[in-house]
Amino acid sequence: MTHRNERRIRRTIDDTPVDDIPDLADASIARIERRVTTEYARNTGT
Question: Which domain of life is it from (predicted)?
Fold first, then answer.
């Protein structure tokens, strides 16, 4: 992970109320899963 991304994530977490962090994590996981699925499809031609 780049330093810029790390700072952005830390700032986002610092600015996020504790109760909202699970939602933030779920959104991040969903974004990563979509990216992986898209890359897999692109690489396998499916």
Answer: Archaea
**Is the per-residue pLDDT at 38 higher than 80?**
yes
Q: At what angle do helices 3-15 and 21-44 cross, to 10 degrees?
A: 140
Nearest to 8, CA basis, from 33, 28, 37, 29: 28
Domain hosting residue 29, numbered range:
3-44
Give the total number of structural domains in the chain. 1
Is there a contact between 12 and 24 (Cβ–Cβ < 8 Å)?
A: yes
pTM for this one? 0.53
